[in-house]
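BUG: 3D viewer hangs when loading the predicted structure for this chain

Environment: internal workstation, default settings.
Expected: structure renders.
Actual: progress bar stalls at 90%.

Input used:
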Amino acid sequence: MVLMIEGHNFHYEMENLCRIFFPYEKIKTVYELADPGDLAAYTGVFEQGDTTLVRVWLQMGDWRREAEQTVPTVQAHKEKECERLLAVLLYHLFTQLCQYTPKWGILTGVRPIKLLRRLSEEMGLESALDYFQNGLLVSPQKTEKSLHTMENEQRILSLSRPESFSLYLSIPFCPTRCAYCSFVSQSVERAARLIPEYVDLLCGEVKKTAQVARDLGLRLESVYIGGGTPTTLTAPQLSRVCQSVTENFDLSVCREFTVEAGRPDTITPEKLTALQKSGVARLSVNPQTLRDEVLREIGRRHTSMQTFKAFEEARRAGFSNINMDLIVGLPKDTVEGFESTLEQIIQLDPESITIHALSLKRSSRINQTGVHFENDAETAGRMLDYGDSRLAQSGYFPYYLYRQSRMVGNLENTGWSKPGCESYYNVYVMDETHTVLACGAGAVSKVKEPGTDNLERIFNFKFPYEYISRYPEMIVRKDRVKEIYDEFWK
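Structure tokens produced before the viewer hung:
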């Protein structure tokens, strides 16, 4: 697909809008009129004194449509207004071409709830909701869901203090790599020899990070160990990692200690006991689906029966706060299949259920091999709508919501929880409420200046072998956290 840009620099937003409708097309962005080929979009802005002309056209084969709008230049110069007008015009042409109207309108950002909160503070709630629907073309259904999510997460946000922070630990290993996955993780079959040394060094980084937090007088609010699949580690290794947290950090006011157990085939009674004895109170068991044929298609080597077994064992081990993840839009899944999965999960009665919309990133195995799932945006949307309705009926409420690029149907991921069982970490990290100090391969620390939107990132090395081989260099970067806080507090 050729995307032509003339008279403006909004290429990033225009590219994201094109990907909503053509997620698998390679987009070539040019800053001049070019041969449109089989599929092309044009966006142009022309300032003409007191007025500004915004023009777009879209062409696919013999199909071609154009649209334009003239607005006062003073209006076009308002923050992102010209960009919004371009997006609205192009969006309407895409909906005509594709005969599909995405429910999030022209929104392509990761954090729509944070956006709604900011708009509410700037213009009042009623005007913000009106802007969501009429300015950004978000459907009434998604606007209402955003409002409820924003209201529900407010209690958690209000608990954060200027000195608050959260801690994230990365375990970048999995039994196998799912076909849709883009995370920096390695299969145990390939990386087993790295795990013992990785665990040793990770515990060292945790100790260094705790010293930095103590020196700054920071207050730990939540701990989250994710991956990858943390329960790829053995029970003794899990104990060691968790104890490195409990022995080095002050957890006296910590509100949550979560481990993303993830794959049911990695969960054993021994590992659950190790986590329980190490102070972990919240667990995530992530089946994604309870249809075995779908599990096989996405490269997961577990069955639905293993999910039920893992959940029962977690309950027997004493876990009273369990989350379960599902995905809509998986290959070979159907609306009826997803409905059956969700009903069985609701019967298990976990404390929270997170529903993700499938996102196929460039580095996923599917995209690398050139084989694409036939994702039907409308079908995935029906699955998500069913999930929203049934979870609300079953006593769950949405408490955090975020989006990713290349999501089927431009949909969303939503965390649903029973009252009092929300994940604090999920809310804090999605809202960018306070500093997140992160340890492990691929982890990114985000140092937040209290009371502002200023945030600086400190990156760890991505891959386990890099993390190990360049560990001394990476550990020195933790001192940068102090430097950033010193700069903030000058």
